[in-house]
Amino acid sequence: MQMTLMFHILMGSLGILSGFVALYAAKGAPVHRKVGIFFVVTMLAMTASGTVVAAVRGAAPALNVPAGLLTAYLVVTGLTTIRPPSSGARWLGIAAMLVAATVGLISLGFGFEAIANGGTRKGMPAFPFFMFGLIGTLGSVGDLRMMRAGRLTGAPRIARHLWRMSFALFVAAMSFFIGQSDEFPTGLRIMPLLALPPLAVLATMLYWLWRVRFRRSLRGLVGVSAPETA
Q: What pLDDT does residue 183 have?
């Protein structure tokens, strides 16, 4: 299990580094595409090993197992939005949607249980349970809407890819910089400083979503077309 833990740490570190490179690289450029694939591979390896460690070692499994499953879900569905598999796409989408909905609803239940118990559940605060609960339920609702509407194109397709990949990176950054803050040297345990990387991910995600969706909508209202963003 020690080897699995070390593998999890290594993959998580590589996933966060590659995620930041992909996030700030020119969208659609070769660097973005190649590093993005590396990000997907390392994140899936990180979430798989982390889920195993949480379940076997009892490391807050009610929080870490949903975190691993939903992060993997975000990465997979973010990738298939841009690069749908040649076969089995519908069944993969249905399976991902069911996993997200199930984990999301269970996490919301844990969140309400935490509130009923004074704000915590087995020592864990309610906020992360609600965060993962909302990710799972809202993500699954988005999956259902996409299945009913058909394959996405244009700005909705890019926005779906952006928020899912970015939020997966946000979860990984939160887990590393905030969740493992006690592992940093004492001089670096400055919460505003450690919070900067996750907040940077959120801010960049919101910027790109505004640029892809809302700015285009505003331009459309005044009759100005925006260039396609890859």
A: 74
